[in-house]
């Protein structure tokens, strides 16, 4: 007799239930083992990055399986807001999707349609073959799928910044993530994500989201900047990544035991 499964809470559910800002980190190494270590850290979110990391569908699936045993909620960033790619990520069991580079309302609305079955959207129907429904072991999956998936869109450009209030008001957009690195580049401030103008722009998006009732998060690997965004009302903050933690910690070991090399370039901060 088949087992009927209860779906886990979505990222949107977690945000609604939270009585504090949530904190998370990026999983960029492409390793299920590293993703599992991150998931057991005590942080709230593990963000599996399919945009800037050397990973594909099989790696994302393995990381989702590794993270599933832990309380941390997995959020998967697609490489692009393409309905076919979003369909594949949903079918392999990614409940919580992050779409990068969303610049306006029409694009946000298209992403909402891409993650919902007809008549609410255009997601292709293949759940009986897919992990998303646990191969039809989640009762009424097709009818309930739009409630079992969360969509976060990323604002990373001046165009997205100008449309932030309208994007936040789109029905079906569950959360926003601001990407200060690309936003800084779009503002002509490449590599200066802590520039006052960039910080002020991030805070503008946070205010727009709060006015619309849509949670806004942000990347902030600098603790002081992360604290500032939380004070400004950020609902969640990504405060580190597996690869940057390893890079900085290994550099610290080299400095401690070998010493500084004055000719070596200073490590870049994210």
From TrEMBL:
Domain HpcH/HpaI aldolase/citrate lyase: 23-248
Keywords (A to Z) from UniProt: Lyase, Metal-binding
Gene Ontology cellular component list: cytoplasm
GO molecular function ontology, one term from the record: aldehyde-lyase activity
Pfam families reported in the protein's UniProt record: HpcH_HpaI
Signal peptide as annotated in the record: none
Record-stated family: Belongs to the HpcH/HpaI aldolase family.
Name of the protein in its database record: Aldolase/citrate lyase family protein
């Amino acid at each position: 007799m088949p087992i009927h499964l209860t779906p886990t809470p979505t990222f949107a559910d977690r945000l609604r239930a939270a009585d504090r800002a949530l904190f998370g980190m990026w999983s960029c190494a492409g390793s299920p083992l590293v993703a599992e270590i991150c998931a057991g850290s005590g942080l709230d979110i593990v963000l599996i990055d399919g945009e800037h990391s050397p990973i594909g569908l099989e790696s994302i699936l393995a990381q989702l399986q590794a993270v599933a045993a832990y309380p941390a909620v997995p959020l998967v960033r697609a490489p692009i807001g393409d309905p076919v790619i979003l369909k594949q990520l949903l079918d392999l069991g990614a409940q919580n999707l992050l779409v990068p580079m969303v610049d306006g309302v029409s694009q946000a609305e298209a992403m909402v349609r891409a993650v919902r079955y007809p008549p609410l959207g255009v997601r292709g129907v293949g759940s009986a073959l897919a992990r998303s429904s646990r191969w039809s072991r989640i009762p009424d999956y097709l009818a309930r799928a739009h409630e079992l998936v969360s969509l976060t869109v990323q604002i990373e450009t001046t165009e997205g910044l100008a449309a932030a209030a309208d994007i936040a008001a789109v029905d079906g957009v569950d959360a926003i993530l601001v990407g200060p690195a690309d936003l800084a580049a779009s503002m002509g401030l490449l590599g200066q994500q802590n520039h006052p103008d960039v910080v002020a722009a991030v805070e503008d998006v946070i205010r727009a989201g709060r006015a619309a009732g849509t949670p806004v998060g942000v990347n902030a690997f600098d603790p002081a900047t992360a604290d500032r965004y939380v004070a400004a009302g950020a609902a969640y903050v990504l405060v580190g990544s597996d690869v940057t933690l390893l890079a900085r910690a290994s550099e610290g070991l080299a400095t401690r035991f070998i010493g500084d090399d004055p000719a070596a370039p200073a490590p870049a901060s994210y």
